[in-house]
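Need Protein FAR1-RELATED SEQUENCE 1 isoform X3's 3D structure for a figure. Predict it.
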Amino acid sequence: MSKDEDVIEASNGKDAVTSEGNSDMEPYVGMEFESEEAAKVFYDAYATHLGFIMRVDAFRRSMRDGKVVWRRLVCNKEGFRKTRPKRSENRKPRAITREGCKAMIVVKKEKSGKWIVTRFVKEHNHPLVVTPANGRRTVFYLKHQCDEKDVKIRELMAELQRERKRSAAYQEQLDMVLREMEEHSNHLSRNIDGIVQSVKEIESKRVAPSNS
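Structure prediction for Protein FAR1-RELATED SEQUENCE 1 isoform X3:
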């Protein structure tokens, strides 16, 4: 996050963007928006016009009131998927959804309440697919959304399965400990009973001569 902190700049005084969904306009450092949502709407429309999908990424909150004051909007191919060991060679390989793309904008809330673009990276490292002119995400958008949701669902299901196995192992260990504790408790009870019985026998022997 320190890199982004270094590039944060103040507004250059340019007028705020009034057409939040104007996809023909390219973002630029110093561009102003009335709200964080307006910046999202604009970059989303720009992404659709250019041929990629926006993803809402990192943010920072104010230390004073906890509200979001800094937001990064990126290409959905930003970063890389975490590699995991293959479980089976017969499983269908997952679609590549992350390619380390650096395209983004960073917006920051100023004291005036305006949201200012403080960083803009235009270049993508992958082909762009232009969507229809009306700006609606059709098959291209839905396919990528489904791919990402499918990947997320599979990851969550795998994590759930691992947690279930881990929970079952913990339960088995707990049952074993409880059995050992019960056996130890029974053993102590038998020893105590034996000691009490021995004491009683000794006491009875001591008392017997005095009564004769």
